Amino acid sequence: MNPADQPIRRRALLWAAVVSGLLLAMLDQTIVGTALPGIVDDLGGPGWYVWAFTAYLVPATVLLTVAARLSDRHGRQRVLLTGMGLFVAGSTVCAVAGSMPVLTAGRAVQGVGAAALEALSFIVVSELSGAGRSGAGQAAISAVMGFSFVAGPLVGGLLTDTVGWRWAFLVNVPIGLVAMVAVSLALPAAFGRRESRETPLDVLGIAALSLSVGAVLVGVNRHQELGSWTSATTGGAVVLGLVGLTFFTFVERRAVAPVIPLRVLTDRVSGSLILAGAFATTGLYACVLLVPRWYQLDQGTSATGSGLRVYPLLIGLLIGVNIGAVAVVRRLDVRGPLLVAGAVALIGAGGFALLSGDSPTWAPLASMALLGLGMGPALSGLQIAIGRTTAPGDLGAAMGTLLLGRQVVGVVALTAADALYRSHATTHEAAAATGHGVAWVAGTGAVVAALALVGLRDRLPTPTLTAEDGPSQAGRSAAPASRAAAGAT
Fold this sequence. Notes:
By secondary structure, the protein is mainly alpha-helical. It contains 21 helices and no strands. α3 (64-74) crosses α4.
């Protein structure tokens, strides 16, 4: 399939389907988080509160790489449709649930589908860009991600306060069904299929990765509930997960077709990009957790009002992802633009470090805007760089690993931000404690990402033709990279 030769209407249909699928998966994480207190009050079973969240988070995270690798084997269309179908089915179960166990089971099914939606959206966008590897697609996808992360709590609050929490799930059903029809019509079944079905499936690697990452996530989430690392379900689960990951690397060295080829991690370029991607956006998680809570509990702002006050972060992200895409594609360089962006994020983190009860109203808003502006380029720029520097056969694994690292480190960032807040709140006011948590988590992430990128002095390769791009793309591939990135603005 040569995307450039497809009718404009067909390409537009496919883009709309891919973006809507990702939007559903990303929004669901934050919408339901806001609606969950009302759900627990309605259905009972407060002990299921954490598990309703964990049941979605664990499969949605651990299966990212698995979904990406399965699509190399079975084609992007089949895995994407399967993910959409599971997400719609899980949403339906949640919408009609009469008890927390049933809702938790539906959340687990949603999580499995969300893994395919998130992983395949980024991969399909990269491949649809063809030889041009336009930054516009990754900028748009990254903007959807940023928008969902910040707008979700507001949408969840509005739905819960007006039509009821069940609509937080029901709204997924018609959109998901329409997206499934669009994908089945616009995306050929063989698109993205690179691996023979006769190649042995890395079942042991998939199992080891899923169980290990799942154990780490369960341990970290249980710690937020119990507040102690000495329990078998907190520190014990994390240790078990780390041991499992060691076993996973042993398995992958011997697998014929590993779910994560170790060369993706050991290669200087792709390994650095994945490490930077895992840490560059930790401030996003800290902000979304701590800032709305501070506005609500300390400033007396409503849930809807606190969501609106986080919008400087969203606006900064939207601007940042576009600037990052244009800069990386135009300069053929990921190191320079993202180091500058990291410095901007550090300035925003510094602003939060100075936050106090006497700070002017605009101070946290400006700090959030700077954080968003500094983190946005990492969302789009690193994905463009992965698409440019990774061999076609490893694209699914590399993109899946990038998303997996971002999710896992994001969960750890949430726990760290909450712990920093609580420890500082015992001796300081709420504003200072909030600023302390955001500053340390955001600043640490920006520094680690910068250290990962500082050694990348090579320019990104100029886009070249592949067999999938077809001969008709030859004339287009000579166009300046800046022209390809122009759509990102």
